[in-house]
Design a protein that fits this description.
Blueprint (H helix, E strand, L loop, with lengths): L1 E8 L9 H18 L2 E6 L9 H6 L2 H10 L3 E3 L2 H4 L4 H9 L5 E2 L3 E3 L13 E6 L2 E8 L4 H5 L3 E3 L2 H8 L8 E6 L8 H7 L12 H7 L5 E4 L10 E3 L2 E4 L7 E10 L2 E11 L8 H18 L2 E5 L16 H13 L4 E5 L10 E4 H7 L6 E7 H11 L2 H5 L13 E3 L3 E5 L9 E6 L2 E2 L5 E7 L22 E3 L5 H12 L10 E3 L3
Parallel strand pairs: 1-2, 2-3, 3-4, 7-9, 9-10, 10-12, 16-23, 20-25
Antiparallel strand pairs: 1-13, 5-8, 6-7, 11-12, 13-14, 15-17, 16-19, 18-23, 18-24, 20-21, 21-22
Amino acid sequence: MTILTLLHTNDIHGRLDQMPRLATLIARERSLARDEGRHVLLLDAGDSSERSVWESSITKGRASFFMLEAMGYDASTVGNGETFQWGLGALAKLVESVHFPVLAANLFAIDSNQPPVPGLKSHAIFEIEKLKIAVVGVTVDEPSAYTRFGYRSEFAADVLGDLIPRLQEAQAIILLSHLGFGYETDEEYEKHHPKDSPRARILGDRQIAKAVPGIDVIVGGHSHTLLNEMRRVGDTVIVQAGDYGKFLGRLDLEIDSDCVKAIRYQVIPCDENVPPDPTLSGVLDLVRFEAGAMLKAKVGDAADDLDGDVDLKPDHESAMTNMMADAFREMCSADLGIFLSGFVARGLARGVITRGKLMDAIPGSAHVTAGRVTGAQILGMLDKALARDQVMTPAHILRGRALGLPAVSSNVSLTYNMDAPQGKRVVECKVDGQPIDPQRSYRLATTYWTLNDSGDPDSYIFLQEGQTVEMIRIEQVLWEIMEDWIKAKSPIEAPKGVRLLGVRN
């Protein structure tokens, strides 16, 4: 009989300062396992990165993966934090930056059944005392989120249904899942995923355990669920350790040639009572030094102050957002540029603009999009964006910042009333001095948040037949695109004039 301990984390989300404390706990558990004759696998279930954390943003996720490598992880899957943000090239660099296997069985190249990037694997086999332990990885089922980057996903349930039977030579099969824990009851699941809905095949861990026989353990992530006790669904055990590195999960398994038995589970708190591991603290200092050097590069100069504290004044236009709307219009050769000003966190002061200052002003990983849409669609987008709750309410997509007013390019003037009923919030909108024509086709430059082909019910623009979305320089996020634009235009002057005029009932 072999005793295998699974140590696991999930959804660390760039909390790099927490990782040296986790390293201390991991070292303690490994030492204890050696003393007791147990074997250990250290696993991460995805989203170790975070787009709003500068170390993750500047390295496109590699900072967190460097730390995982230094901590001795045996395998990780990728989460939406790694796959939805930075593009195919960044994913390739992320996978090649570490020696442990990075797993995502449900991600494929756009035109084949091969992995989308070299080195990304569906599973890994670990041999322990002549036993084979298969670790499989799957990540979020959101096909449209991947296709814009040039690769695709298949539903995890379908992929696992094919893969798991081919791993039966393994004495234990462990699934690293970034699918989320799932709904507690079948009735609740079916309420949110009707059988005739395209989302009917998007399953959480509980549903995967029922749908795919042969999985012994699911180590979960994505839903940030803290399971203080292991959950059983049929013959499958499910565990998940919360988020942000606040806990280290430990699951002890008894394994022989024909049986896997979960004998003990606990989540170990990782708080201020746990001292940071000094070696990992040194690694973190080195990671930050290397990442910080990238921030010091000069981007250009600002001839004026570019105000842009959107979160402080979400119902005001700003020089920073106006400049960016102009930049979008120009780089996309568009008729007009519009985006939600909350994607800007703050402005730029007069003087030297460094990459660090620019990233601080435009954090995150939003992308620029363009497409031909009708004036009616643009008016509908503006009407939704101008609702007071849309403007003022903190948004999850912006990590708690308000979405703010629409920012518009210099050839657009917008008079609005945030308190008017739906359909009446746009009082007047002019493009090049003329009222926007609902029937006319315009090339709009904006961000993926407002113009995309996801079909999400919360979308700002629903595409009509024949309309497509152009992803602009998909491997670059907002701050990178603006860096190139500023370099070409420096010194940058603050845009003049008022583009937005608010009125009240």
